[in-house]
Amino acid sequence: MESCQVSEFKAHCLEWVKKVHDQHQEVIITKRNVPYARVVPIEEEPYEIYGCMEGTGTILGDVISPIEEKWDACS
């Protein structure tokens, strides 16, 4: 874990944010050698394939009873 003064962070903010992202480590920002803020990387949540479409479909009508229409594929 690194630390830097608030004036240093202000002058080189984008560099510090890139460093946090690339190295996946937090940075403590200090003001007069007292911890003032913390910059941490975002923890990415794994994408779950199971259940990702839950609640997106709609049942229209009876799906259990046989249909009256004869299909050509059956002959």
Count of helical stretches: 2
* Content-based structural category: alpha+beta
Q: How would you spell out the order of helices and strands? A: EHHEE
Fold-level CATH name of the domain at 1-42 = YefM-like fold
What share of the residues does DSSP label as strand, in percent?
15-25%
Instruction: Kindly report the average pLDDT value.
Output: 89
Number of strand segments: 3
| Helix proportion | 10-25%
Q: Per CATH, which architecture of the domain at 1-42? A: 3-Layer(aba) Sandwich
Rg over CA atoms, rounded to whole Å, is 28 Å
How would you sum up the major sheet? 3 strands, mixed
If you had to describe this structure to a student in words, what would you say it looks like?
The chain is of the alpha+beta class. It has a domain at 1-42: YefM-like domain (YefM-like fold), CATH 3.40.1620. It is 23% helix and 20% strand. The protein contains two helices and three strands, in the order βααββ. It has a three-stranded mixed beta sheet.
Entry keywords:
3 strands, 75 residues, YefM-like fold, alpha+beta, 23% helix, rod-shaped
Question: Could you write a compact summary of the structure shown?
Answer:
This protein has 75 residues and is α+β, with helices and mostly antiparallel strands. The protein has helices spanning 6-11, 13-23, and strands spanning 2-5, 27-31, 34-39.
Question: What's the layout of helices and strands?
Answer:
Layout: E1 2-5, H1 6-11, H2 13-23, E2 27-31, E3 34-39
Parallel strand pairs: 1-2
Antiparallel strand pairs: 2-3
